Amino acid sequence: GHPIGPSNIEAQQNSFLVLQDSIEESDITFLLTDSRESRWLPTLIAKARNKMLIDCALGFDTFVVMRHGMTESADKEALGCYFCSDVTAPGDSISDRLLDQQCTITRPGVAPIAAALAVELAVSWMHRPGAKPSDASDSIPGGGLSGTPQDTVPHQI
């Protein structure tokens, strides 16, 4: 996204280590940040560390809440991620954009609704039968451990 000047390299490396340690020490990481770029690196770190991450991507009048799951083993089908289907790398999604095209502007009420749904998604995931790392079958109706809709955890809202 944004270039790092030579005078900021050490500070950026320290920020990266703090972020990495925070994700490593957490059971679930919530991303409620205001741009695509700010969600990319934490998503990548969580996936590499096999940690649960719930992402809230806010638009001007829409949002998506998505879980990036953990998998028990490499042979399990993994969940998709917010960035997997992007055709462009994370760049500057804020500068030189109209107000309704910026990720940082949201209609009042959308952010609290998205945050509440993110918490509900986390609670559903934590309290499903078996409470093991989730894979893509948890997103399919009837695909959970008991085969009932009650233990199905959606991939995104």
TrEMBL record:
GO MF, one example: ubiquitin-like modifier activating enzyme activity
Chain residue ranges for the region called Disordered: 130-157
Domain THIF-type NAD/FAD binding fold intervals: 19-122
Pfam families: ThiF
Composition bias type Polar residues, residue spans: 147-157
InterPro entries: ThiF_NAD_FAD-bd (IPR000594), Ubiquitin-activating_enz (IPR035985)
Annotated protein name in UniProt: THIF-type NAD/FAD binding fold domain-containing protein
Lineage: Eukaryota, Sar, Rhizaria, Endomyxa, Phytomyxea
